[in-house]
Amino acid sequence: MGLVLRVAIDRCNGCGNCELACAFAHPRGTAPGHSRIRLENRRLAPARRATPVLCLQCDDAACVAVCPAHAPARNDTTGAIELDASRCIRCRSCVGACPFGNLSWDDEAHAALKCDLCHGDPQCARFCPTGALARPA
């Protein structure tokens, strides 16, 4: 397996830089796309914490197994499971198959959204000020 991200939830301050960096890294026309990472907020006394949630790039990925068009496939260089939009038949099977809920559906673009590790240069990690998201050492 190639590149994966290390997530340190104890370092996340919920700033949202990861979501913005992801959205701008995946443009849709002249506007940023939707983020493929989301922050699940939890209020813990005394400080507010958040948990970054993104595709786990599973070894035996359900999204790959369920797709009748073979649109999701592992990129041998980055290790990311990427969606080939030209193969996608818009059935949304991959979205429903993810046991972690880490794929989403974009109604405007009529496409499934999932983390592709920005083709080997994950912008969420690059713009994370606290190191909550990082490439493994």
Q: Could you name the CATH class?
A: Alpha Beta
Coarse morphology = globular
β-strand percent reads 15-25%
Tally of DSSP β-strands: 10
Order of helices and strands: EHEEEEHEEHEEHE
CATH topology (fold) name = Alpha-Beta Plaits
- How do the strands line up in the largest sheet? 1-10
Average pLDDT value? Answer: 89
Which consecutive residue ranges, at least 5 long each, have pLDDT under 50? none
Radius of gyration: 15 Å
Q: If classified by CATH, what would the architecture be? A: 2-Layer Sandwich
Query: How many angstroms does the end-to-end distance come to?
Result: 15 Å
The helicity comes to: 10-25%
Q: Given the structure, what is the number of helices?
A: 4
Largest sheet: 2 strands, antiparallel
SS-derived structural category: alpha+beta
Offer a concise description of the structure.
This protein is an alpha+beta fold.
